[in-house]
Amino acid sequence: MNQPGTLYFFCGKMGAGKSTESKRLANEKRAVLLSEDDWLSSLYPNQIESFEDYKRFSLQLKPLVKKHVQNILCVGTNVVMDFPANTQKLRKWFLDMAEEVHADHQLIYLNLSDEQCLCQIAQRRKEQPERAAFDTAKVFHHVTSFFEEPDASEGLHVIEFSGGSKE
């Protein structure tokens, strides 16, 4: 039997750099990268117009993604998930996914201030104008209202990066 792969996932406010860091980590670990944005835009094109739409479609996606990720982990391949793990409930979903197949996990917590995130969001709007409608300070503050910092009681293996330094 193969040693299962490791599941890597991210926690951080909107604009903290989760997608950028997930691409870098997947390359470094030679891992399969799965992006929630890619899955959602492919499966539900032009259907996500609000945060409520996002939450509904994201929830529909989770059972399929969980089984898919577990199959990849079981053959010994690492998986990097560019899916937010920004609440205790979401982090429990990731932890269960790994533990059910006896895989290791790593939560990467990008702990940036609101100001740093908003600055990065402004930059992203310039680089990706198609995201301008969603990448706003108003959406940031709404989404951030649901954010929960990781806590030791969750039983996660956490690596924290603060202040934008990922060295």
Automatic annotation (TrEMBL):
SUPFAM superfamilies: P-loop containing nucleoside triphosphate hydrolases. GO terms for biological process: cell division. Gene3D superfamilies: P-loop containing nucleotide triphosphate hydrolases (3.40.50.300). It comes from Metabacillus indicus (Bacillus indicus). This is Cell division protein ZipA. Keywords: Cell cycle, Cell division. Pfam families: AAA_33. InterPro entries: P-loop_NTPase.
